[in-house]
Design goal:
12 strands; alpha/beta; DNA-binding; 434 Repressor (Amino-terminal Domain); homodimer; 6-stranded mixed β-sheet; 6-stranded parallel β-sheet; Rossmann fold
Chain lengths: ~350, ~350
DNA sequence: ATGAAAGCGCTAACAA
DNA sequence: TTGTTAGCGCTTTCAT
C-alpha cells in the first residue's frame, strides 16, 4: 500500500490561493523583491513548502529573453580532461543556481553551427567555448545577440569576449626546472597538431621554459602529435629512431604522454630509468598508468571559477572587451620521471 | 570594416509581418500542421530564412508543460565510460531534435535531490538514470509527475519505468570461452563494490559463464573492487598474495582492470605471459595501456538508442510498465590476454 | 503592504 | 485557406 503522492503546485496561483494572497506576493516572497509583511511571508512560505512548489523558469525566460542558462561547448568528451573539467563547471554553475547546457562539436563545423542555434534558441545568458579546432566565425551570431562568450586559451579578447588561459609557461618552466635538477640536459617535446594556434602557444611556452633554465632547444628532439594517444605513440617512435635521444620528453597533454609511454614500453625502454616522461593536464587516469605519470595538472575548479567570473564581468559591461584571465597549474611528480641516466643512450 | 549584422527575428510576429500573414500561418508552416497554400508557404519560408528566425522553445514549454528536453543522470564523469556514453546520447537525442539536460550525482544523495528538482523545473519529458549507487526514492517525484524514467541495469521495471540492461551474461560468456580456448582453466574475478545490486548481477553473470564453459568457480579467486583504479590494484595484490593463482583474471570494468594491470606491473608479473587480464566497458583508454587491454566493449551507441526507444514506448503508454531492453556487447581482443602459461605459478 | 493586470512567444480552437 | 484570440506562468508597474 503506497500513500497517495502529495499534491504538487506547478504554478504560483495554486500557492497564492492556499496562502490567501496574490501571485504577486508569492513572487515577492520567492525573490525577496518588494516588501512583504513578515506574517504574510510566513504564510506564503508555509504554502510553498506544503505544496512542494516547482517554479517554471520558462515563464521567466519567455518574459525576459534570458534563461539563467549558460552554454558550454567542448570539442570532445573522449579526452578525459574535458569531462573532468565539465564536472567542476557544472558544480560551480549549479551552485550559483545557473543551469548548464552542454554541447560537443567533435571538430565538426556543422555540429558547431547546430550548437550555436540550440544555444540561441534556449536563450543562454553566456557561452563558454573550448573548441580551438573549429572556425570561430560560426559563433558570431551569439555575439550579434549581445551574448557574452568566454574562450579558453585564445589569449585574446574582442568586444563581448573574455579569455581564460592556462598558464602553460608556468607549467613547463616548473617541469623543466625539475628535470634539470634531476640531471637532464636534453629534453624533447611532443607537441600538438600542427597549424593550431594553441599548439603554437604551447610549444613556445616550452621553448621559453628551456631558455629560462639555460638549456638548449634542439629542434630534432621535437615532434608534432595530435593531442591523442596514437599521435604520442607515433611521435615517440619517431624520436627514438634517431641516433641521439633526449633523456626526458615533455608532452602537450596527458593523452600524448600515455601514447608515448606505450611506445616506450613496446620498444623496451625503461621509464624513468632510461627516459623520463612528463604529461600535461593531470587527468585522473595518469595515475593508473605504469609507471604513474608525472604531469602538470591544470586546476579545473579554478578554471570553472574563472569562467564564471569572466562571464560576470562581461555582463556588467556589455559591448566591451572582457578580461584575460589565467588558470594556475601544478607539477605533480609521480614515477615517470627520475634522475637522468649516466650515459646518453 | 565589418558589415552590419543582419536583422534577426526572435519571434513569429516579425516573420509574419514580413511575409504578410498571421503568426498562426507561420506556425503552421513551421510545424507542417494545418493546410497552407503552397504560394503562401513559400513566402513564409523566404521570410523565415531572410530573418534567420530563432524560435523560442520556452513559449511552447510554457504552453504545454513539456520541453522536448530529456534529462540524463550520470553517477560521475571521471570514469571515461560515462562521457563516452554521453557523447552518443547527446548525438542520438539532438539528432531527433531533442534537448539534453546533463547532471551528475557524484554519489551524493543531496545532489540527486537537487538534480531531480532541476529536471522538474525544466519540465523534462523523460529521464535516463544511470546512478545505481544512490537511493532511488529520490526520483519518485519524477514518477509522480508522470514523467517516464529509464534506468540502466536495474533489470526491473515498474509503472512509468523501463530498463536498459547491458548483456553482461553474453560478455562474460564470450570472454570465458575465449580464455578457455587459450588454455586457461582457473579464472579469477575482480568485482564491484559489495552490496550494490549491479555488482551482484555482474558476479552472477561471470559465475554463469564459468558454468556454461564447464570451468570451476573458485571463490578464493574472487575479490571485490570499487569500480575504480585503486580498487582494482588492491584486489589484484590481494589475489596475488595467495599461494595459488588463477592464470587469468576478469574484471567488472576497465578502470578496475587498469588498476589490476598496474599492480601486475609493479609486482613484475608479465601480462599476458604470466597472467591474462580482461576488462569490461571498452573505454578508449584501454588501448593506451601497455599491453593494450582486452575488454568486453559495451555498444554505447545502441545503448543511447535503446534509451530513446524505451522513452518513446513509455510515452505511448503512460502509467504502464515499460520494456526491459538489452544492449549488446563485443569482445575486443587486444594484448592483455594470451595463452595460459604451461606451469601454474 | 498588497493586488490587478499586462505581456513575453507560441499553438490550437474557433471564426470567417 | 487564413486570421483572431486565449492562455500557459511569471514579474513588475501601477493602483489602491
Amino acid at each position: 500500500m503506497r500513500s497517495q503522492p502529495p499534491e504538487i503546485a506547478r504554478n504560483m496561483r495554486t500557492v497564492a490561493l492556499r496562502a490567501g494572497v496574490s501571485t504577486a506576493t508569492v513572487s515577492r516572497v520567492l525573490n525577496g523583491s518588494g516588501a512583504v509583511k513578515a506574517e504574510t511571508a510566513e504564510r506564503v512560505r508555509k504554502a510553498l513548502k506544503e505544496l512542494r512548489f516547482i517554479p517554471n523558469p520558462s515563464a521567466t525566460t519567455l518574459k525576459y529573453g534570458r534563461s539563467n542558462t549558460y552554454g558550454i561547448i567542448l570539442p570532445d568528451l573522449t579526452n578525459p580532461f574535458y569531462p573532468e573539467f565539465l564536472l567542476e563547471f557544472e558544480d560551480v554553475f549549479v551552485e550559483q543556481d545557473h543551469e548548464v547546457l552542454v554541447a560537443t562539436t567533435q571538430s565538426s563545423q556543422q555540429k558547431l553551427t547546430n550548437t550555436v542555434r540550440r544555444m540561441l534558441m534556449r536563450r543562454v545568458d553566456g557561452v563558454v567555448m573550448m573548441a580551438s579546432e573549429v572556425d570561430t566565425r560560426a559563433v558570431e551570431p551569439i555575439l550579434n545577440q549581445q551574448i557574452p562568450i568566454v574562450t579558453i586559451d585564445r589569449r585574446r579578447a574582442q568586444k563581448g569576449c573574455a579569455d581564460v588561459a592556462i598558464a602553460f609557461e608556468d607549467g613547463y618552466r616548473e617541469a623543466v626546472l625539475r628535470l634539470k635538477a634531476l640531471g637532464h640536459r636534453s629534453i624533447g617535446f611532443i607537441g600538438g597538431t600542427e597549424g593550431l594556434r594553441t599548439s603554437e602557444i604551447r610549444l613556445q611556452a616550452f621553448q621559453q621554459a628551456l631558455a629560462e633554465a639555460e638549456l638548449r632547444f634542439e629542434p630534432r628532439f621535437v615532434r608534432a602529435g595530435d593531442y591523442r594517444v596514437n599521435g604520442g605513440d607515433a611521435a615517440m617512435r619517431s624520436l627514438l629512431r634517431q641516433q641521439r635521444r633526449p633523456t626526458a620528453v615533455m608532452t602537450v597533454n596527458d593523452l600524448t604522454a600515455l601514447g608515448a609511454l606505450r611506445a616506450l614500453h613496446a620498444l623496451g625502454i625503461g621509464v624513468p630509468t632510461q627516459m623520463s616522461l612528463v604529461g600535461f593536464d593531470g587527468i585522473l587516469l595518469g595515475e593508473a598508468a605504469f609507471p604513474p605519470l608525472t604531469t602538470v595538472a591544470v586546476a579545473r575548479r579554478e578554471m570553472a571559477e574563472r569562467c564564471l567570473e569572466a562571464l560576470g564581468k562581461l555582463q556588467q559591461n556589455v559591448g566591451t572587451r572582457g578580461p584575460l584571465l589565467s588558470v594556475p597549474v601544478l607539477l605533480v611528480e609521480r614515477e615517470s620521471t627520475g634522475p637522468a641516466p649516466r650515459t646518453r643512450t
